[in-house]
Each structure stands twice: as C-alpha cells, then as structure tokens.
Model the fold of this input.
Amino acid sequence: MVNRRILISGAGIAGFTLAYWLKKRGFLPTIVEKYPGARKGGYKVDVRGTALDVIKRMGIYQDLLDVNVNLTSSKLVTPNFKILEFEGDILGHVSEDDIEINRWDLAEILKKAVGDIEIIYGDSITKIEEMVHFEKMAPRAFDVVVGADGLFSNVRRLVFGEDSKFLRNYGIHFCVFPIDNMFNLDRCEIVYMDKGKLVAAYAVNEHSYACLAIKSKKEAPSSEELKSFFEKEYAGLGWEIPTLIKEMQSSKDCYFNAIAQVRMPAWSKGKAVLVGDAAYAASAMGTSLAIVGAYVLAEEIEEASGDCSVAFSNYEKSIRKFVEEAQDLAESNQELFSEEGSSFRTMLQFYLIKLMPRKFIQFITKKGREKMKRVARGYKLEPLQSHTKSL
Ligand SMILES: Cc1cc2nc3c(=O)[nH]c(=O)nc-3n(C[C@H](O)[C@H](O)[C@H](O)COP(=O)(O)OP(=O)(O)OC[C@H]3O[C@@H](n4cnc5c(N)ncnc54)[C@H](O)[C@@H]3O)c2cc1C
Done:
C-alpha cells in the first residue's frame, strides 16, 4: 500500500465519514479543522437513501435512530402572524426511511465512530506542495490531501482557484442558532414564510434551534457584518421575530451559510481531491452526498492500493451521475422560495393547506417524495470485502 498518510481538511460530515473508512481500510488519516474545537450548532439535516446503507455499515444506524428528530406536528405562521396547526411534518419532504437529525448530533456520532485519530483544531492549510504548509503548524509531509472543508472549501481555492468559478448561488443566505424553547414546541416545527423571508424553529428532546433565511439579490455580506445584515433584513416584522433576532445577536453558536451548489468539471488535481460540499454541494441532499462520496473515495483509494490518479478517477466515474442527478433535483426545489409574490397569495396557500384533507396533501406531495427517494438511491454500494469487514 502506498500513499498512506492522508490529510483531510475539515472535521465535518464528509471529513469524519472519510476518516472512519480510511482508518478501517488501513490508512493513516489526519484531520485539520479551522475552528478551535468541535463545531456545535446547525439545524436538522436529512440522511437518506444510499447514505443510510453507509451508516449501517458503520454500525451507527441505531445511534442515528435514537436521536431522530421525527416531527409529529407543524405550525405555519401566516404573513399576518396567525398560527395554523397541523398534524405531522407538513413541510418536511422526508420519506418513510429517511432520518432527520440535528446536524450537531450527526457530527458527534460520526466523530465518536472514528475513534482515535489525529485531529488538529484551529489551523488551516496555506499551500499544498510536496510538503503541506499551514497557518500555524510547521510544514508536514502528506501523500494525499482531501478537501472536505465545505461550501467555501479552502483546498478547492488553493488547488482549483476562485470560488466564483464553481459556485451556483441562489441568493439565499441562512443562519442557524440554538434557542431556548421560546415557542413551547415538542417534536414540532414552526415556520413563517413571506416575500423571501423565512423564520423557522423546532424543538426535540431538550434541544431547540432556529433558522432565518433570506432570498435577496444583495451581495453576500462579509462574515463580520452577517449578524447586522440579518437584523436589518428582519427589522419591522412583528410576532416573535424581534426576540429571535436578539437571540441570534447574542448567540455564540450561530452558523451562517448560503444555499448554493458547487459544480466542477473535475474533483481532483495531483495529490488533492475534494469530497462533500467542497466538490458537489447540493442543499437538501448535501449531507447524504457527503456520506456516500466519502465512503466511495475511501473504497477507491484502497482498491487502487493508494495510487491517487487511479483512485480519484474511479471515485469520480463511480458517483458523478448520482451526484449530478441529486444536484438537478435540489436545484428545481430552489424555485419554491421566492422574494416575489404577494403576502396575500402566501396566506391563501397556507389556508388552502389547512383546509385540504391530510390524505390529499400526502397524495400531491407523493410524486416529489418518490423522486427524492429514487435519486437518493441512485448509487448502489459494492459488497464490502471481507478483509475490510474484519479490520
Ligand atoms: C456548524 C455547522 C452547521 C451546519 N448547519 C447546517 C444546517 O443547519 N443546515 C444545512 O443544510 N447544512 C448545515 N451545515 C452544512 C452541512 O453540514 C453540509 O452541507 C453537509 O453535511 C455536507 O457536509 P460537508 O462535510 O461537506 O461540509 P460541512 O459539514 O460544512 O463541514 C465542513 C468542515 O470544514 C471546516 N472548514 C472550513 N474551512 C476550513 C479550513 N480552511 N480548514 C479546515 N477546515 C475548514 C468547517 O469548519 C467544517 O467543520 C452545517 C455545517 C456546519 C459546519
């Protein structure tokens, strides 16, 4: 086996999944994470389709089920702040087998499954040559460098160039933060949506999170200005929104990001390769793609006995079609969130949903859920070889 020393940039969903499978296949993964410690926060994310098969192979399926968000009711807040209550997860697009999980819980479970590996927090790669250079650490030798560092990947920028070449931006900015259970929710999500502004919150067990999302033609603000950008956009709105804005302002675990896709003609160059959002961010399917992508990358690296060029090319051949179908589906769903249209129309839609029999709503959303299910199952895992099972 050659190229055993593998550096992964990013301790996120893709980073931990990849580290798990590389370790299991006899490699020596090291993770470098920009943040000074494990990053908390995040809203609920979906794990679906083939990603659940990977989770099962990791032996952590039950751990995910134990913290499944499993919403049992929903509330829609109309543009004039009337609350309509519904049974079940009216806004969710989850199908029976999907698992919805707090992003933080998922990251924690994956990290625990990886076990003992070197994780360097609070540092970042600055140059990738024969040696890898860092902001703080002295240069070190690695055979392979994997960018699992999210939508605005550092490795992608260093190896492939500016973000703008690969990012498809939909002008949606979001921010997620833990809150006190101010809406008294229990396995319930509350959602306000009007003219390109969304406010959502849910609570499950003792955890409660809020999400603000804005569709705007304005330029993305710099990271220092994000909180005041959200505050200004929501100024003047009633209901509980001013309280939520205050919570966001004081939160230390606020996670900001954009809804965007990454589309690249190739995911690797030399000894560097990308996985997860860094290579193919897809919103709604991003977490599942990251899990499957990380699994397949580790598998191909082992099958090629560590020969990067063979492994990277096979990794791409194996899952590109699956990834692109998922991205196309996610892209068509973006159109549902618009800053145009009238509050009256939104209100009408909400009341219509309230009036419709539940069976009818299930019927009209069935096609979409079935499509999501088919796409999420669009890649089938190869049988696990016996030597990997026993490692
Ligand atoms: C704290 C947090 C909260 C999130 N909340 C949500 C959410 O509410 N809803 C949603 O849809 N998605 C959320 N995401 C994104 C979601 O996890 C991903 O879209 C998806 O799971 C794919 O995972 P990924 O591993 O490719 O990227 P991510 O899970 O985003 O992980 C990328 C990791 O790389 C790290 N990183 C970034 N830059 C560098 C660098 N220069 N050097 C080293 N490490 C770096 C990041 O800190 C992060 O830990 C969140 C991500 C994070 C980090």
Q: What stands out?
A: The radius of gyration is 21 Å.
